[in-house]
Amino acid sequence: KAHRYHHWNANNCYKFRRKKCHRKNNLTKNPAAFAYVLEKLLLFWSPEIIAGRWNKENEEKKPKKIIQIKDNSFKDIAAIKSVVLPSTLEYIGNDAFSGCLNVPYFDFPSSLLYVGKNAFSGCTSLMKLTIPESVTEIGASAFSGTNEEFTIYCKQDSEAHAAALKDEIKYVLQ
Predict the structure, then answer these.
(1) pLDDT tier at 46 (50, 70, 90 boundaries)?
(2) 64: exposed, middle or buried (C-beta count within 10 Å: 0-12, 13-18, 19+)?
(3) What's the whole-number mean pLDDT along residues 91-117?
(4) pTM of the model
(5) What is the CA radius of gyration of the chain?
(6) What is the separation of C-alpha 152 from the centre of its chain, rounded to a whole number of angstroms?
(7) Letter string b/e over residues 70-101, b meaning 16 or more CB atoms within 10 A of that residue's CB
(8) How confident is the model at residue 15 (pLDDT cuts 50, 70, 90)?
(9) Distance of CA 145 to the CA centre of its chain
(10) In Å, how far are 1, 15, 95, 119 from 140, measured between CA atoms?
(11) Could you tell me where the beta strands, DSSP code E, fall in 2-110?
(12) pLDDT confidence of 5, banded at 50, 70, 90?
């Protein structure tokens, strides 16, 4: 543990040493210094490690599966240039990625079941999208305001095929 602290202190926090707040005494008396140190520690270590609660039990826990992207999660965030959707994803909420102007491609996982209304509306860089057969519902105008060349790749008589016909979007049957 001492080695990790030394490594963190030496490489990443010259201000920390310059302020002389590295002494235990200063950290307990100065709430601002304590908050600063805690913030820097959280960049490198999980709260369990910092609190000294890391044990074999924590190592064996699997990370939570991401099954849902909630409504408005990334709405109008033009700075996003690429997105990697988790393989466990089942639900993309309403307006989840609407207005993400710079994302050219989304790779939908085969576990996806639902795409919310306006989920990708206004994604003007989006050129193509392969929608798996597992998708059972696509919300209204999910792909409105996309590029003129935007094309949906889908299976015949699938929900994606119906959405492409309804919203007059180019499609290619696979």
Answers:
(1) low
(2) exposed
(3) 93
(4) 0.64
(5) 23
(6) 23
(7) eebebbeeeeeeeeebeeebbbbbbbbbbbbe
(8) very low
(9) 23
(10) 54, 53, 11, 9
(11) 68-69, 91-92, 105-107
(12) very low
